[in-house]
Amino acid sequence: MPLTTNSAQSMIPPSRHGLSQLSNRPILSIISISLLLRFTTTLLLLFSHRFLPSFAADATKLSSPLFPSYWEAFVRWDTVYFLEIAKDGYSREQRFAFSPGLPAIFRFGGELLRRVRGAEEVSFEDMVLVGIVSTTLATAGAAILLLSLHLFRSREYSLITSTLFLLAPARAVLHAVPYTEPFSALFTFAGMLTFIQHRDLLSSIMFACGATFRAQGAVMGLGFFGWRWILQRPFAANRLSLKRLVQGIVVTSFLSLISASPFLVFQAHAYREHCSSLTSLRPWCSSTFGFSYGWIQNLLDIDADTNVGPFRYWTLLQLPNFLLASPVLLLSFSASYSYYSSQPRFVLARTLPFLFSPSSPPPEQQRLFLSPALMPFIHLHTATTLLLLVSSHVQIVLRLCIVDPVVWWYATDLVLARAREGEGDRRRRWGERWIWYTIVWGTISIVLWALFLPPA
Predict the structure, then answer these.
(1) Helices marked H in 26-123 — which ranges?
(2) Is the pTM above the cut of 0.90?
(3) Residue in 420, 397, 404 with CA at minimum distance from that of residue 154
(4) H or E element at residue 22
């Protein structure tokens, strides 16, 4: 059911007295909020699908004619392809645009249910049920990991951050349908947490798990490990150590290879399937280093990420999608600008130590968002946001922001502006506006998803 004014107000981070009560049992509080949102989102999704006309075409539905209609609300957009892959494998070239992580969960979970029921084959219904349950666990797990990223040493800050994460704009993706973003967030946050703990090998494995769900996870390790082992440690004594630099390059290469290995293995499988016969070579076999991912997405209009490239999406026809994405884009760029402009000399010295002389860290500030520990996260966030704006279908930022903790850290910074002295009235209002935006648009997006309407 739609969120009423009273229920919407209950989702707004509470007063300090209320936060102190929630902070006593933060993990239980986050799990409770996650399950509450799961229940209300699913209820609204089913209601919209039942009583409003759907715009789904036959080509976007599952091939099984026996698939019950009440499950169709959960099977939209890429979920159709994930289920078909789980059922029949990568028998068609276009399916190689989708990573194997979620289809594997569908298949193995569905197989377990099949054995329990004593059925002859795995059904789509079993796989959808498995997807819903596993997504519920992944969403709650990701929120708990975000709560555990103790970069701020503030339980209040972490609790609000996880709550705002659970109120992400793409509510159906996070709280109702089986999709990749909850799993990608789960393993991305796990990789970040272990990176902060200096458990780099385990961090690379977590990033590798994330890469099985979204291909973008393949480069996650390169950014973080390159930051630590190439840009920071060789310059730790305020001068370059060639020995440490060589060691850092070796370590970064090794850890990054682990992080990217699922994507590389998957691409090798695609190459073996479609490039082994000289009589049926596909164009991407020789034109894209043997990687099928980008070529298939650019050729086939089967995913929100397709037909990508610098400024290829910047047309007048796509203006509505830019408008839909603008709240998240504005918040994202504001986060980068706020961080960089507050301490430009220190940021340059840490990021480019081979060009700029060392700079002492800025004095401790009241704004926890400006912590020096956030610098590699801010850099990754900025690069990702620019890539989405310039080279992707821009509306997918509504989904991909789920995987970006900087969005939720900065939103928390705005929400807490009211509690800090010296903040202008305009800045204090932006936090409240963001909360209301996520509540209102999150509710609308659930209805659009049920009716098979963009953005997805």
Answers:
(1) 26-51, 78-88, 101-117
(2) no
(3) 420
(4) helix 16-23
The string of DSSP codes covering 291-330 is --HHHHHHH---STT-S--TTTT-SGGGHHHHHHHHHHHH
Q: Which pair of tokens denotes residue 157? A: 């800050």
Q: Which amino acid is at 456?
A: A
SS3 226: helix
Long-range contacts of 272-281 (CB under 8 A, 24+ apart): 273/90, 274/93
Vertex 120 angle, CA 116 and 125, to 5°: 70
Q: Please give the pLDDT value at position 247.
A: 95
Task: Kindly provide the b/e burial profile for residues 378-398, where b requires at least 16 CB atoms within 10 angstroms of the residue's own CB.
Answer: bbbbbebbeebbeebbbbbbb
Torsional class of 362: left (φ above 0), alpha (ψ -120 to 50), beta (otherwise): beta
Task: Yes or no: say if 86 and 106 are a contact pair by the CB < 8 Å rule.
Answer: yes
- Token digits of residue 214: 């979204």
Give the tokens for residue 119: 């059925």
> What does the alpha-carbon distance between residue 452 and residue 267 come to, in Å, rounded to a whole number?
30
pLDDT in tens, 315-338: 888 899 899 999 999 999 999 999
Q: Which of 184, 140, 167, 131 is nearest to 40 (CA)?
A: 167
C-alpha distance from residue 294 to each of 184, 267, 325 (Å): 19, 11, 23
Phi and psi based region of residue 416 (left: phi greater than 0; alpha: psi -120 to 50; beta: remaining): alpha
The predicted-structure confidence for 258-316, as pLDDT tens digits, reads as follows 999 999 998 888 878 777 665 556 666 766 555 655 656 655 544 444 456 778 888 88
Q: CA-CA distances (angstroms) from residue 226 to 81, 245, 249?
A: 35, 11, 8
Structure tokens at 24: 């006593």
Report whether 191 contacts 203 (CB < 8 A). yes
Tell me if residue 278 falls in helix, strand or coil.
helix
Among 72, 140, 55, 2, CA closest to 445: 2
